[in-house]
Amino acid sequence: MEETPRKLPSPLLSLIPLLVLVVLLFFTIRIFGSDALGGGSQVVLLTTTAVCSFLAIVFGKVKWRAIEEAICNNILGVSVALIILLLIGALAGSWMISGVVPTLIYYGMQIIHPNFFLVSCCIICAIVSVMTGSSWTTIATIGIALMGIGEAQGFSTGWTAGAIISGAYFGDKISPLSDTTILASSVTGTPLFTHIRYLMYTTLPSIFISLVIFTIAGFTHEGTGMEQITSYAASLKEHFHISGGLLVVPLITGILIVRRVPSIITLFLSAALAGLLAVLFQPHLLQEISRMAEAGGESLFRGLFITFFGNTQIEMGNAELNELVSTRGMAGMMDTIWLILCAMCFGGAMTASGMLESILSVFTRFMHRRVNMVSSTVASGLLLNICTADQYISILLTGNMFKDIYKKNGYESCLLSRTTEDAVTVTSVLVPWNTCGMTQATVLGVATMTYLPYCFFNLISPVMSILIALMGYKIKGPIVPQEETQTESLS
Asked: Are residues 149 and 106 in contact, defined by beta-carbon separation less than 8 angstroms?
């Protein structure tokens, strides 16, 4: 790709695309509401990309080819994520219709007491995410089942999704199997387990506070009575063949993940296995989905394929349960994929034009004291999540941009790696047009702005990073370079 011009645009000019983005999104969300992701937000991102490109070409003398190549590189970087999204859609459909998710919901409603439901959600997702190293897989599997249990117990979708996401991103943040954990440590030159140990000083207090909040919220919850929970369980058992044997699917999926089988292969095999069990355990549902008059092999084939790629509606005799067991398959992921592609266009234009670097350079001016340095890193990470719409790009840019500054000021690389994770990994899910925010909102069926206030771990982590820096707890530095020490001793 052609090099970005040495003379960066002014920060004031660079802020114009961001202001246009915020203003247009405000009106789009206000007018379209929850349907904004169906096209309105995509138009906003492309319009903002056009504004950014126009300013770069006219005032920054940037060639269009440089912008185009940056956009292509961004899209290439998320191509695997797009395939994973399609497979998650197929997995969500097959896990539901095969009876895997209904079985988890059925047993979960009987085991988890409503008072402890939210804190249990957070802990369960944290354990699964630590074991798998993937917040996406955790939320797309056990998270969907927990959403169903929460709805049956009368919890709002925002609270349930917030507890699920808090636990899933706790595990994603500290698991040695997590790609973001490995990326943050490697890009800053920090040994992996040194990075994880140093993360604990901010991560454990953050998750502890979150668990306390979820526990209090659970005990103050006045939810659905046991009669309705019993009614939900009876309805699920009536329409689905509930069997413990179906749990072999999440068990095998967990084994594949722990053995670090690539995500695409794992998700494909999991969806295929669930599809096979749907034919064996729920043929009546596949017949209903196929809408064919005659039962037989053709109707099973049609119903199974619709489960993978299309919308499924099963009449449960209850509007809430109908919504709970409905699926959208791979087709349900298309709005998210469309939005990601448009977000990558905006991120590419901001990077190639030098506007992103110009805005971030403002933060580096204040990086003289420890607290200012950590605060600037947190602010930069948040801004990168908003502008680039991808946590991997944000981690790479944050680590590379501040690595020399931390080293120059004499601080260990693990301080930067920890701050990067506190600022980028956990907040990516809070940005509606970020790949993480879009994915989790689509998978859980809850708008980003609906679950955002309840993602306490994700909200507390960046603040905790700054607070620990203010206290100076377990922060080694500034370290005097060896050359300076030798010079002082000689003098």
From this structure: no
CB 355 within 8 A of CB 56: yes
pLDDT (tens digit, 9 = 90+) per residue, 89-127? Answer: 888 889 889 988 888 778 877 777 788 889 988 998 888
User: What is the rounded distance in angstroms from the CA atom of residue 256 to the CA atom of residue 87?
Assistant: 15
pLDDT at 5: 45
Give the burial class of 186: count Cβ atoms within 10 A of its Cβ; 0-12 exposed, 13-18 middle, 19 or more buried.
middle
Report the C-alpha gap between 64 and 8 in whole angstroms: 16
Q: Which two tokens stand for residue 471?
A: 């206290």
User: What CA–CA distance (Å, rounded) separates 31 from 420?
Assistant: 35
For 226-280, what is each residue's pLDDT tens digit? 666 677 778 888 888 888 888 898 888 878 877 878 878 888 998 999 999 999 9
What is the distance, to the nearest Å, from the Cα of residue 237 to the centroid of all Cα atoms in its chain? 32
**Domain boundaries in the chain?**
80-332
Q: What pLDDT is recorded for position 490?
A: 40
CA dihedral of 390, 441, 376, 348, whole degrees rounded to 10: 30
8 A C-beta contact, residue 394 and residue 388: yes
Selection from 427, 455, 445 nearest residue 163 by Cα: 455
